Each structure stands twice: as C-alpha cells, then as structure tokens.
Amino acid sequence: MKVLVAVFSAEGRTGRIAGQAAAHKGWDCYEIQPVKPYTKADIRWTNPLSRCNREKFGKQVVPVKGTVEGFDRYDAVLIGFPIWYGCAPNVVNSFCSGYDFTGKKVALFATSGGSGIGKTKEKLQPFVKGAGILDAILVSDGDDLVSYAEKVFGV
C-alpha cells in the first residue's frame, strides 16, 4: 500500500512527528504550505485580530502553495495538522479541496497544546471529496502515528 503523509505544521511539531513516522515506514511526506507563510504573530490565537482568527471566523479560503505530484498513485492518505479551534486550519481545508480522494483510505492526525480532537473529522469531511474519513486522533510522537496508521490502514 502506497501511503502519503500530508502535513501542515505551523511551528514544526506536527511536521517533526509526520517526518519521523514517514521515515520509519518509508512513506512519502508532503508539506502543506499556504501561499503566504504564517508568521508567529499570524498564529497568535489569543489576539482576536490575528490572521488565524480572521481566517477561521471569516471562513476564508487559504490558497495552498504547490501540489502533490502523482496524487492518484496513493492508496492511503494521512492528513496532519495542529488543532485550531477544535478543527483543521483553513489551509488544510483548501489542500483537501484540491484533490479527488475517491478510492483512497483517509485518516487524520493532529497535535494539540491542550484541545481535544473534537469534531475535527466531521468538519473536514466535506472537503475530502470521494472518500469517507476513517478516523481522527491526537498524537504526541512518531511512534503514535505509526501505530495509528498500522491500525487504521493495516500497513
């Protein structure tokens, strides 16, 4: 089974976890990046005027830089991100909207500084065209992600 780990990492933690798991299992890893990179000030959620707040509460589409070459060749896709407001950041919604997931197994993983996974799966589902999201979990390290993928995907 060919697995893609697609990850958005605002401050590096989620990306490190994804990279550890991908390297351990030989999976491909793709970094989801907004066209306009986030600064520290942009992701300061305690500031009601910060970019992340304006995007989330304004339901803004956040353009994504680049595309996954050969997306069709993947059987399974793990989508990772930090939890923002109990769900995926808008840039992840935009990433998912750009692909047809028909015939793929899809699962989510997230990191969090204290929030639970909430209704992340249900909120991201409308953006994952052609496939049902199998599961969503909070992870704290690469081993957690490997164990999770083995359970959900059978890899």
How much helicity do the residues have?
A: 25-40%
Shape: globular
Instruction: Kindly provide the name of the CATH class.
Output: Alpha Beta
Q: Examine the secondary-structure arrangement and name the CATH architecture.
A: 3-Layer(aba) Sandwich
- CATH H-level superfamily: Flavodoxin domain
Structure description:
Helix content is 29%, strand content 21%. The chain contains 5 helices and 7 strands; from the N terminus they run βαββαββαβαβα. The strands form 2 sheets. It has a 5-stranded parallel β-sheet. It is globular and about 45 Å long. The termini are close together.
Summary tags:
155 residues, alpha/beta, Rossmann fold, five-stranded parallel beta sheet, two-stranded antiparallel ribbon, 7 strands
Write the layout of secondary structure elements.
Elements: E1 3-7, H1 13-25, E2 28-31, E3 33-34, H2 51-57, E4 64-65, E5 76-82, H3 90-97, E6 105-111, H4 120-124, E7 133-138, H5 142-153
Parallel strand pairs: 1-2, 1-5, 5-6, 6-7
Antiparallel strand pairs: 3-4
Helix pairs in contact: 1-5
Put the structure in a nutshell.
The chain contains 5 helices and 7 strands; from the N terminus they run βαββαββαβαβα.
